[in-house]
Amino acid sequence: MPRPIEALIHQPALAHNIRRVRACAPDAQVFAIVKANAYGHGIEHVYEAMRGADGFALLDLDEAQRVRSLGWRGPILLLEGCFETRDLELCSRLKLWHAVHHEQQIDWLAMHKTHEPHRVFLKLNSGMNRLGFTPTAFRAAWTRLNALPQVDEITLMTHFSDADGPRGIAHQMAVFKEATEDLPGERSLSNSAAVLRHAQEASVRADWLRPGIMAYGSAPDFPEHDIHHWDLQPTMTLRSKVLAVQPLRAGESVGYGSTFVADREMRIGTVACGYADGYPRHAGHGSPVLVSGQRTTTVGRVSMDMLAVDLSALPQAGVGSEVTLWGQGPNGSVLPIDEVARAAGTIGYELMCALARRVPVHVETLG
Ligand SMILES: *Cc1c(COP(=O)(O)O)cnc(C)c1O
Fold first, then answer.
1. Residues 97-106: pLDDT tens digits?
2. For residue 142, is it within any domain?
3. Confidence category of residue 367, pLDDT binned at 50, 70, 90
4. pLDDT tens across 175-213, in order?
5. Does residue 256 have an active-site annotation?
6. DSSP 75-144
7. Among 21, 33, 97, which residue has the most ligand 1 atoms within 8 Å of its CB, making it the best to mutate?
8. What is the pTM of this model?
9. Residue 11 CA to ligand 1 centre (angstroms)
10. Which candidate, 157, 230, 257, 332, has a CA 20 to 30 Å from the CA of 90?
11. Which residue among 41, 77, 79, 235 has the greatest number of ligand 1 atoms within 8 angstroms of its CB, and so is best to mutate?
12. What is the CATH number of the domain that holds 54?
């Protein structure tokens, strides 16, 4: 018997979440963002559920090749564009769209020999200061690209730093509008938080949306809003089983460092899941967890292969009881990944991306 831990990827939930994107912006085109191996889910595991999108976006050339070899003939966008000049050959061969965010990428294009002009996404740095041309350099970059025979359409693109929070997107929208005002071409602005929180405004939902995390059933603005508020469903479940039960007397401790000491009699369940599976060690004592679909908490430190949960209020639970670390539990129970992430001082993105290779993955396919 292998260890009882496994991850489930829920294709019906992925499809539901993509429908939620459509509902927020029915007139827009949607990229399914599958960077970082589909946010840790596995590109091959999500593909069937996400091929209802209008395109795929990612940043690793190997991942682009994997999407093509799954049979996708539609748009694939490289969000960071080319890293070196020879990447353009792959773009030509696989018909990849690519971001252009610095001058050298234009130099490479100008020297590139191709019969098929490329569609490019010219990126404006509207304030995040990560990638993109400054507002003053943007127009000259557009003019240069527009004159190249290697370039077909130019889409205008930017990325928001604060769509999930109080600062919002108004300051970046103002920069974008001013820099792009009379330039032709489609626009691509919105990540998940902008789709959910700001897409009432038509210019925000134009023309190509880039929603990542909401498709994977995590709320970008948790804890202000959770997945129930946004009607999103968890797409990744990490589950395991109780492999031992320990009775505790008051004064006894649990785990490395004896950081937790019981102040009363307790029943502790030892679960086959640890930080080597991708469960965050930083999620200290008291993190939420489901046992047989019922909510309880972790106890003491997370070890490499095991963690402890409090079974004191769950007398039916014992060896073999199902433990949901995050995602969908039995009988319709749900433990949003965002709650576990918060207990670990991080965000759902990091936990899903960090699912360890040793965890077997199973796929719940579309009905
Ligand atoms: C990752 C990424 C997105 C998706 O962001 P989410 O917060 O996951 O919706 C959109 N655009 C760019 C450029 C990205 O790198």
1. 999 999 999 9
2. yes
3. confident
4. 999 999 999 999 999 999 999 999 999 999 999 999 999
5. yes
6. -EEETT--SSTTHHHHHHHHT-EEEE-SHHHHHHHHH---SSPEEEEEEB-SSS-SSSB-HHHHHHHHHH
7. 33
8. 0.96
9. 20
10. 157
11. 79
12. 3.20.20.10
